[in-house]
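User: Protein folding is very new to me. Would you mind checking the protein record under this note? It all follows right here:
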Amino acid sequence: MSHKQSIKTRKKISRTMKQKGINKGKKNPMFGKKGYWAGKSRPDISQKMSGDNHPRYNLNKLGAEAPNWKGGLPNCINCGKKLKHPKSKRCNSCANTIRHGRRCKYKNIWMRSSWEIKYAKYLDTKGIKWTYEPVRFHFMYYYNKKKKIGTYLPDFYLPEQDKYIEIKGYANDRFKKRFSYFCKQNPEIKIEILNQKKLENLGIKLR
C-alpha cells in the first residue's frame, strides 16, 4: 500500500542512505530503473500540456467563450437591470425592498418576527419610547472547552427605563449558556426576556 511521505521524512531517509552508503551504484533503489523523463523531451511534454490539451483549459474563460455559457447574464425580475451572477434573480436594490422569510416591516423597520412587531405596537399604544436593535454587545464564552468571543443583539431598548428587551419564543440550551455568560459579564445592564406567556400576560394577542 503506497502512501505519501512528508518532505521531512524523505530528507531523513535520504540522509540515512547517504550515511550508510546505500545511495550509490547498484545499492541505489532506483538503479537500472527508467524515470518518468527517460526517452522524452521537454518540448513534447509541454505541447501535450498546453492549449486544448491542458486539464484546466476553458476554466478561466469568461462570457461566450466559457464552457457553461447560456446566452448571457439574467436580468432582474423586478426592474430589468442586468445582474452580475447567472443564478441571481433580483438586484440588491430590489432584494432589499421585499419581505425575507419571516421578517416583517413596521414603521419602515425590518423586524425578525411578528411577535416583535406586536410588542412594538403594544409599546406605541402605551406611549413607551423604544428603539429596535440599537447596540451589539461583545462578550466571552466557552464552547467545547474553548474560549470564544460572541456577540449579542437585544431586540428592544426602552430609554425611559434604561432597559433592554429580548423577545424569545423558544430558548435552546446554547442560547441559555451564552445568555448566562453575557449577564455575568455585564451585571450593570438591565435586560428581560419576554416569552409567549409573558407577552400574553401583557395583553398581546400572538395568534
Summary: The helical segments are 7-20, 42-48, 92-95, 114-125, 173-185, 196-201. Strands lie at 104-106, 109-111, 131-132, 137-143, 146-152, 156-158, 163-167, 191-194. The radius of gyration is 33 Å. The first strand starts at residue 104 and ends at 106.
